[in-house]
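thread: overnight batch results

M.L. [08:02]
morning all. the overnight job finished for the chain we discussed friday. pasting input first so we're all looking at the same thing
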Amino acid sequence: MKRAVLISLLFFAVLGATAQEKAVKNVILMIPDGTSTSLLSAARWYQTYTDPSRQTLFLDPYIRGLVRTSSSDAPIGDSAPTTSCYVTGQPSQTAFISTYPVATGHDLVPVDATRAYQPLATLLEAAKILQGKSTGLVFTCEFPHATPADCSAHTYNRGRYSMIAPQMAHNHIDVVMGGGVKYLTEKLQADLKAEGCRVFLDDIDGFRNCGTTPVWALFGETSMPYTLESDPAKMPSLAEMTVKALDLLSKNENGFFLMVEGSKVDWAAHDNDAKNAILEFLEFDKAFGEALKFAEKDGNTAIVVLPDHGTGAVTVGNAKSNHGYDRLSLEEIMSPIDNYKISTWTMSEKMKDVDTSEWPRLFETYFGFVPQQSEISYLATARDYNKSYIPKEERKSNISLTKMLSQVVYGRTYFGFTTFGHTIENVFLAMYHPGDDVLSGCPTNIDVHSYLCRQMGLTGKLSGLSEEIFAPHQEVFKGFETTTDSLGVDNYRLTVRYKKNTLVADSYSNYVTVNKKRINLESVIVYMDKKKTFYLPKKLREYIEVGK
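M.L. [08:03]
and the structure it wrote out:
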């Protein structure tokens, strides 16, 4: 009898473990870029100040712990390698977009020097290639910026948009919504449309009425405006884009992978602009609320929320509150920033266009106070204020007018920052899972990737996919005649000859020609000039051998 009970218990234990390991249909990865943990407190209190009925964030019930995140060789991470780790499993180094790092003398994780600069397959690429899922990216920065690029492109230099933009446009993404009209060239628009993609540029009506994929909807020449400065008649919010993306992606019976980024939390924090960091995070929280509604109704969707790193380390409490901090009312703390009508970045751009005599008027209009003469004199020393009455050689400040302005504006408040850069802190982790299969405690960025792989049914599959679709051309075409030509800036062509057959592959495209016949690929072709190497699918060797 005891043995029968034991077998029965083991059966149900195994059954329970199997159920827990079962992948969900849809995964939503949400990243509030640069959100320091302390910003949650600041945002929550500001929300309560403006609406006393809102005492909690949508995220609050789902916060599970903290995440240890870093670059491969530095404890304080850059956006490019930190999100790269979430989507590839490999910590990398500053500026690397889903690309294997170079070994240094101070690596924090094992690094194989022989794999330097190899593109690494991402969760987005694996979802569409291995599982037939739909894929989407939603963000408020320009589309080739670090975090969206991490999901869908590969390079060692996050600033090389001429490498990144074509990879994203050719990577068969079903939904792309965010900023960056300037970077979607006419050639890339034509390529997208040739594949049946609908393209909406600063077209809010087209975006709102679109009911099919693939679709690209971009707003703003570069990034989208801050929430505080956005016109909802012209620009969708992050929450609206999230709802639209979910509606479109959920039509695929195989499921989807969606990444949503609150991009400009980080930008405001870099400028030490507390109010706009708060408002951008609160907008991100609304987007999470919409994703949560979808997931709860769907019953087969997991949501993972975590920043890539902290930025600025905002505090509520600074040198002004050293004494009497425990007697400050919520109104005393929050009311000053309530009068701030624009971002410090936008204000600095207005200030650059006029003489310092006009600054008091601007301050009174947009920040509700008149600056002291000492503050005007200080701001006039900014290195990028070209109308200054102070000779350029005497303006030795190494920070911008925007950052100097934040010091003046927030120096009048109880908000503080420790840096204009990123911070070493652990970041918060929030999760929703229909079966409550979640991480807790303080996992690493690698652990988060492993969890995402498990939820998507991709455990152990990404490394094999990387080897299959990103093989060095010297290995793929070993023994064949190969030549590489430059066709212009960040535009390269590989020509391979075997017997009477010729294969031509262009960098950052999604097809090759064999004897002038086009063959479409599921992945993008990546050229790494550091290694003078094309990374492309192994199966292309077969195509040139048979000539078709």
